[in-house]
Design a protein that fits this description.
With 748 residues, the chain is of the alpha/beta class. The chain has 3 domains: 82-184, 3-Layer(aba) Sandwich (Rossmann fold); 193-475, no CATH class; 480-747, Spore Coat Polysaccharide Biosynthesis Protein SpsA, Chain A, CATH 3.90.550. The chain has 21 helices and 23 strands. Strands 1, 2, 3, 4, 5, 6, 7, 8, 9, 10 and 11 form an 11-stranded mixed β-sheet that branches. A 5-stranded mixed β-sheet has the order 16-15-14-17-21, covered by helices on one side. Helix 9 runs parallel beside helix 10, helix 17 (625-634) crosses helix 19 and helix 18 (656-666) packs across helix 19. It starts with 18 loop residues before the first helix and ends in an 11-residue tail after the last helix. Residues 1-23, 39-63 and 473-482 have low confidence and may be disordered. Keywords: Membrane, Transmembrane, Transmembrane helix.
C-alpha cells in the first residue's frame, strides 16, 4: 500500500532553535504588538477612569511609589557653626538686605547699598562675574559659600537665585533681626525702607496701632488678591490660583487686628509688579515694558488665619520670629520656589500667633522685557490651588516649632507638592538655623481651631479702593477712574477712626438711619442720641441741655478712637472741608460770634444767667490748679457769662481724660451745656491752640427764607438746617451736599 500523505501545513523541516536570530527576524512584529498592547492599555485606563476619576487613578499610581524617608534629627546634638573663613567674622548688624546677583551691580543695587542702617549682602552663583564688587556690600562668592560649613550648600543649584538661602544663614549668623528679601532691579521708594515697612514691632520705636484685616466671615475663602486693595483689580500676583483671577470685587468690609506680630511683610512693587507669565504675555499691546502704579495711600492690610496671599522673594521683609520661613525649596522650578515657600511659611506662621501684612508700594521695579516661559511656572499653576486648601486643613500634634515644620515638609513631599529632596533640605536648613544661634519661637494655640467670633456692625471697617489706570488684554486705561471714590478713600482715611455723637431734636423714625448712612460712610461710627429712646433704631436717650453728661460713657466704649465729634441735627457737616484739621487739637466755634458770646448779667432775664454764672464759678473754684489757672487766664476778658451754642465741637483722644475729670467736677449741678462746654474748653487748652477749621462755618441764629441759597458746600459746616421727619427734606439736603461729595447722588 502507498504511504499516507502528510499535510504540508505540519510538514516543517527540523531546525535548531536560535532565539537571537528569531528575534532579529521578527523584531518589527514584536514592536508592532507592543505598541498595540500599549494603546489598548491606554484606552482601558481612560474608559475605567474618566475625567472625574483621573486624579484618583493618578493617586492610585502614586500610592504605589515608595514614601519619602522621614529624617530623624537630634536637635540637641547640633553643633554651633562660627564664621572663621570670611573677613567679616566679627561684623554684626541687625538689619540686612539680601539679594542674588548674576551680573555686575545694577544702578538700583548701588543705591540700595547706601541705605542708612542696612547692610547689603550680595549672594553670587555660577553666572556671577568673578570680579564682582560693590562698595558698601558684602559679597559671598561660590567659593566663600562653600567654606561657611552650612549643610544646605549640598542641596543648592549652582546657577540660581535660590542660593540666597546661604545669605540668609550668613545674615542670621552675624546678628540679623530683620532681613529684607529683594531683587537687584528694584529702587526702594525714597531710599527709606523704614518709611514703608514696620521695622520695629516692639519697644518704644514700634508703631502702636491697629491694622485693617481681611474679614474671616467667609470660611471658604482661603486666598486673596492684594492688588485689588491697592487699586489694581485687573492685575494679579504670581502665585494666585488662576481660578481666582476673576474675583475682582473689593471687600464689603474689613476687620481690625492689633499690630506687633506682622512677622512677614509683603511689599507691593510699582512699575513691574510680581505677575505671572499668563498676565505678562496676555496684557501687553507691544514689546514695551510695564509701568503699573498702585495706590500709595491705601492702608496696609493683614491676613487672618485661614486666608493666604502670594508672597515673593522680590520685596518682602522678614522679622526674626519668621526667619525659619526664608528657606527656598530646591526641587521645584525657580519661578515657583519663593511662592511655595510663602504659602508654606504662612501656614507655620499661624502656629506662633504671627500673621502676614501687605504694604503699599515700597519699591519700583523696572521691566527689562525679559520673558520667561510658562513651563517655568508649571509647579505653580498645576498645584497651587490644591496646596492652599491642603495647608489650611493641615494640623499637627507636634510640640515644638521645628518638629512641626519638618512634619509639614514631609507631608508636602508625600503629597507631591515638592520632592523628597526638599524634605531633607528642610532638615538641613533647620539644623543650620540652630547652628548659627537661632532660637525657635514658642508655639501659640491655633485660632483656626477656636469658634470664630461673630463680626458685629461695630467691628466692621470700610475701605473702598481706588481704581487706578491699568491694562486689560493689551488695552491701557487712560486717566484715573472713579475720582470720587478716591476722595471717599481720603476722607475715610482721615476720619475713619473718629466717632460722631449726634443729637436729634425731632422724631427719629425717619432720620436716624439717614444720618447714619450720610456720616457713617466717613466716620468710625455714628452714635444717635435723642430725648426719645428707640432701641430698634439704636437711638440712646439723652437731655440736650446737659448733653455733656452723656458723652463720657462713649469714651470707654470707643477707647481706641482718635477723637469724638459732637453734632446737632440742626447743623450740616461738610466733611470734605475738614481734611486740613488737626485731629490732636480741640475744634469749636469760638471765632463764630453768633455761636460763642458773652452775656452781661445785667440783662432783663438775668436771673437764669446769674444762676448759671454762679454755678460756673463754683465749679471753677473746685478745679485742680492746672485747670483753674488755665481757665482764669483764658476767661479774664469775659465780663459776664460766657456761652457757646455748641452745635458742633470736637475733642481729641489725648484730652478725653481731662474732659471726664471736668464733667465729674460738675456733679449734680444743673450747669447748662451752653455754659459748660466753653468752660471745659478754656480749662483744657489755650484758645490759640484750638484748630481754626470751624472758624469759617456759615452760621445764623435763625434762617428766614431761601434756605437752598444759604447752604454752601465751601463751608466746613452750615447752621441752621432743618431736616424734619420728611424724607423729601433729607433728599433735598443730600442733593445739595453732592456738590462736595458727588457719590452722595448714589443714595438718592
Amino acid at each position: 500500500p502507498k504511504p499516507r500523505k502528510t499535510g504540508r501545513l505540519f510538514s516543517i523541516p527540523h531546525k535548531d532553535l536560535d532565539f537571537s536570530a528569531w528575534f532579529s527576524e521578527n523584531s518589527y512584529k514584536i514592536l508592532a504588538i507592543l505598541f498595540l498592547l500599549t494603546a489598548v492599555a491606554g484606552l482601558f485606563f481612560r474608559w475605567n477612569y474618566p475625567a472625574g476619576g483621573d486624579a484618583a487613578a493618578l493617586a492610585c499610581l502614586q500610592s504605589a511609589q515608595p514614601k519619602p524617608k522621614f529624617p530623624h534629627v537630634n536637635w540637641k546634638s547640633v553643633q554651633r557653626i562660627v564664621d572663621k573663613s570670611t573677613p567679616f567674622s566679627s561684623f554684626r548688624s541687625e538689619k540686612w538686605i539680601v539679594v542674588s546677583v548674576a551680573d555686575y551691580a545694577s544702578d538700583s543695587l548701588k543705591t540700595m547699598a547706601k541705605i542708612k542702617g542696612w547692610q547689603l549682602l550680595a549672594v553670587g552663583n555660577s553666572r556671577t562675574p568673578k570680579d564682582w564688587t560693590l562698595k558698601g556690600a558684602i559679597f559671598l562668592s561660590l567659593e566663600m559659600q562653600a567654606e561657611l560649613g552650612f549643610r544646605v550648600t549640598d542641596f543648592l543649584p549652582y546657577d540660581s537665585y535660590i542660593r540666597k538661602t546661604v545669605g540668609y544663614l550668613f545674615a542670621i549668623q552675624h546678628g540679623a533681626q530683620k532681613i529684607y528679601d529683594v531683587d537687584d532691579r528694584g529702587d526702594v521708594i525714597d531710599n527709606d525702607i523704614a518709611k514703608h515697612f514696620d521695622i520695629e514691632l516692639v519697644g518704644e520705636a514700634a508703631r502702636q496701632e491697629t491694622l485693617l484685616q481681611y474679614s474671616h466671615e467667609n470660611p471658604n475663602r482661603t486666598v486673596v488678591n492684594p492688588y485689588i486693595h491697592f487699586g489694581q483689580r485687573s492685575v494679579w500676583p504670581r502665585g494666585l490660583p488662576l481660578e481666582n483671577v476673576g474675583h475682582i470685587g473689593h471687600e464689603e468690609f474689613y476687620t481690625e487686628v492689633f499690630g506687633g506680630k506682622q512677622f512677614i511683610q509683603q511689599g507691593i512693587s510699582n512699575g513691574l509688579p510680581d505677575v505671572d507669565s499668563v498676565f505678562y504675555f496676555s496684557r501687553k499691546a507691544a514689546l514695551e515694558g510695564f509701568d503699573i502704579s498702585f495706590d500709595d495711600r491705601a492702608p496696609k492690610v493683614a491676613l487672618p488665619q485661614g486666608t493666604m496671599v502670594p508672597i515673593n522673594s522680590l520685596n518682602t521683609l522678614f522679622h526674626s520670629p519668621a526667619f525659619w520661613g526664608l528657606m527656598l525649596p530646591v526641587s521645584v522650578s525657580s519661578m515657583a520656589s519663593d511662592i511655595l515657600r510663602g504659602y508654606w511659611a504662612q501656614r507655620i506662621l499661624w502656629e506662633i500667633g504671627g500673621f502676614v501684612a501687605v504694604y503699599p508700594p515700597t519699591i519700583h521695579r523696572y521691566d527689562r522685557i525679559e520673558a520667561y516661559p510658562f513651563s517655568e511656572e508649571k509647579d505653580l499653576h498645576v498645584s497651587v490651588g490644591r496646596l492652599i486648601k491642603f495647608l489650611v486643613e493641615w494640623r499637627s500634634n507636634q510640640h515644638r516649632l521645628f518638629e512641626k515644620i519638618l512634619e509639614l515638609s514631609y507631608v508636602m513631599a508625600e503629597e507631591k507638592f515638592w520632592g523628597e529632596r526638599d524634605l531633607h533640605f528642610t532638615a538641613a536648613w533647620l539644623q543650620d538655623l540652630l547652628a548659627v544661634g537661632y532660637n525657635q519661637p514658642r508655639l501659640m494655640s491655633l485660632e483656626l481651631d477656636r469658634p470664630r467670633a461673630m463680626i458685629g456692625h461695630g467691628d466692621r471697617r470700610e475701605f473702598i479702593p481706588r481704581k487706578l489706570p491699568s491694562v486689560h488684554l493689551g488695552v491701557e486705561e487712560v486717566g484715573t477712574v472713579n475720582y470720587e471714590i478716591g476722595n471717599l478713600i481720603r476722607w475715610r482715611k482721615s476720619f475713619g477712626n473718629v466717632v460722631v455723637v449726634m443729637f436729634c431734636s425731632g422724631p427719629v423714625e425717619r432720620t436716624a438711619l439717614e444720618w447714619r448712612l450720610l456720616y457713617g460712610r466717613i466716620f468710625k461710627t455714628v452714635i444717635m442720641l435723642s430725648e426719645n429712646k428707640d432701641q430698634d433704631l439704636a437711638v440712646e436717650d439723652a437731655e440736650v441741655d446737659y448733653i455733656y453728661k452723656y458723652l463720657t460713657k462713649f469714651f470707654d466704649r470707643y477707647n481706641s478712637a482718635d477723637g469724638f465729634l459732637f453734632l446737632r441735627d440742626n447743623t450740616v457737616l461738610n466733611y470734605w472741608n475738614l481734611l486740613s484739621a488737626d485731629l490732636s487739637k480741640l475744634w469749636i466755634t469760638n471765632k463764630v460770634s453768633k455761636s460763642w458770646y458773652t452775656v452781661p448779667t445785667t440783662t432783663s432775664d438775668s436771673d437764669w444767667f446769674s444762676k448759671q454764672l454762679e454755678m460756673v464759678k463754683k465749679v471753677v473754684a473746685t478745679m485742680p490748679a492746672h485747670f483753674q489757672v488755665r481757665y482764669n487766664e483764658n476767661a479774664k476778658d469775659d465780663k459776664g457769662l460766657l456761652l457757646c451754642n455748641s452745635e458742633v465741637f470736637y475733642v481729641p483722644r489725648r484730652l478725653v481724660p481731662d474732659l471726664v475729670d471736668l464733667v465729674n467736677l460738675i456733679g449734680d449741678l444743673q450747669v447748662h451745656h451752653k455754659a459748660a462746654i466753653p468752660m471745659f474748653f478754656l480749662s483744657m487748652d489755650d484758645p490759640r491752640n484750638f484748630d481754626p477749621v470751624l472758624d469759617s462755618m456759615r452760621y445764623e441764629e435763625k434762617l428766614q427764607s431761601n434756605w437752598t441759597c444759604f447752604y454752601s458746600a465751601d463751608a466746613p459746616a452750615v447752621h441752621p438746617w432743618n431736616v424734619s421727619s420728611s424724607e423729601k427734606d433729607f433728599i433735598g439736603l443730600v442733593r445739595l451736599m453732592a456738590a462736595g461729595d458727588p457719590l452722595l447722588m448714589e443714595l438718592v
